[in-house]
């Protein structure tokens, strides 16, 4: 769902994105060579750079999709929620609360984010990991978007972050598959957020936001906590948690209200 509001999400990422110098536009292969040099300067190994970017091609379908995107949320709450919070998703959320009760208790104790909020986000993003996490090679997508001059600095930063994910061993290159702006995993993290907020909650030494439910839910909770979630405080519309922490997840008030309704429904309130 975050991919429908990328311009808003990107607005929060840009301030934390380091400055990169690869020249956008022009010959794509020249650009890739330049961003490869930037990656090496950022500490990425030549092996990772070569495996990820050697032979990478521009994806015009990604570029065309991005240029067609509307970066405003133009549905009413009633219109949107009618397509997103149905009986199947509510029942699925209740089942996830039961199935992962012990895990969610541990995450809630550490991060202070109620379990129903996490499960609601998880369900709305990818149907609890069973839905669409994207089908596009992340490196190709991000190289394409970085080459485009409209938001090159942002996407250069995301490409470097994606390379860091591989370098750290969190995901192999074959699993770097995502959506139309490089979002990864069961709650659709941009690579920079993956690096910044990712938590190895299953203790295997890697942050795996595609396959590890503990890592997915804990990382989502960590993002909210770092961005101001107040444990034990109200989180309904108008509250600080709603207006500040959840706004870092998604700036759309309609989407945040949908999270609240989903959480209420699966929590039995």
Give structural notes.
- The chain has 269 residues and is mostly helical.
- It is 58% helix and 1% strand.
- It contains 14 helices and two strands; from the N terminus they run H-H-H-H-H-H-H-H-E-H-H-E-H-H-H-H.
- The radius of gyration is 18 Å and the shape is globular.
- The model is unreliable at 1-17 (pLDDT under 50).
Which descriptors would you attach to this protein?
disordered N terminus; 269 residues; two-stranded antiparallel sheet; mainly alpha
SSE map:
Layout (H helix, E strand, L loop, with lengths): L5 H9 L13 H14 L4 H8 L6 H9 L8 H8 L2 H13 L1 H11 L3 H12 L9 E2 H10 L4 H17 L8 E2 L12 H7 L15 H14 L13 H10 L3 H14 L3
Antiparallel strand pairs: 1-2
Helix pairs in contact: 2-3, 5-14, 6-8, 7-12, 8-14, 9-10, 10-11, 11-12, 12-13
Secondary-structure content class: mainly alpha
Calculate the mean pLDDT score and round it.
Answer: 91
**How would you write the strand order of the largest sheet?**
1-2
> What's the count of strands?
2
One letter per element, helices H and strands E, the order comes to: HHHHHHHHEHHEHHHH
SS element count, helices: 14
What fraction strand?
under 5%
Biggest sheet record: 2 strands, antiparallel
Q: Outline the low-pLDDT stretches.
A: 1-17
Helix content: 55-70%
Judging from the principal axes of the Cα atoms, what is the shape? globular
**How many angstroms separate the termini?**
24 Å
Instruction: Using the CA coordinates, give the radius of gyration.
Output: 18 Å
């Amino acid at each position: 769902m975050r991919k429908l509001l990328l311009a808003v999400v990107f607005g929060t990422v840009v301030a934390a994105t380091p400055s990169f110098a690869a020249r956008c536009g022009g010959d794509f292969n020249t650009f890739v060579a330049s961003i490869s040099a930037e990656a090496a300067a950022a500490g990425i190994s030549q092996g990772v750079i070569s495996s990820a970017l050697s032979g990478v091609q521009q994806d015009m379908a990604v570029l065309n999709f991005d240029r067609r995107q509307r970066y405003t949320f133009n549905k009413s709450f009633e219109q949107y929620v009618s397509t997103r919070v149905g009986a199947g998703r509510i029942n699925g959320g209740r089942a996830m609360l039961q199935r992962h009760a012990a895990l969610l208790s541990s995450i809630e104790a550490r991060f202070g984010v109620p379990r129903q909020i996490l499960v609601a986000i998880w369900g709305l993003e990818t149907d609890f990991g069973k839905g669409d996490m994207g089908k596009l090679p992340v490196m190709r997508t991000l190289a394409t978007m970085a080459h485009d001059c409209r938001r090159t600095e942002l996407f250069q930063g995301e490409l470097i972050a994606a390379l860091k994910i591989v370098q750290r061993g969190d995901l192999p290159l074959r699993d770097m598959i995502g959506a139309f702006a490089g979002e990864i995993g069961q709650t659709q993290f941009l690579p920079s957020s993956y690096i910044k907020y990712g938590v190895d909650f299953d203790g295997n030494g890697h942050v795996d936001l595609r396959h590890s439910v503990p890592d997915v839910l804990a990382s989502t909770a960590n993002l909210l906590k770092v961005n101001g979630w107040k444990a034990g405080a109200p989180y309904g519309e108008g509250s600080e948690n709603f207006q500040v922490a959840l706004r870092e997840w998604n700036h759309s008030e309609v989407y945040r209200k949908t999270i609240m309704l989903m959480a209420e429904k699966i929590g039995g309130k």
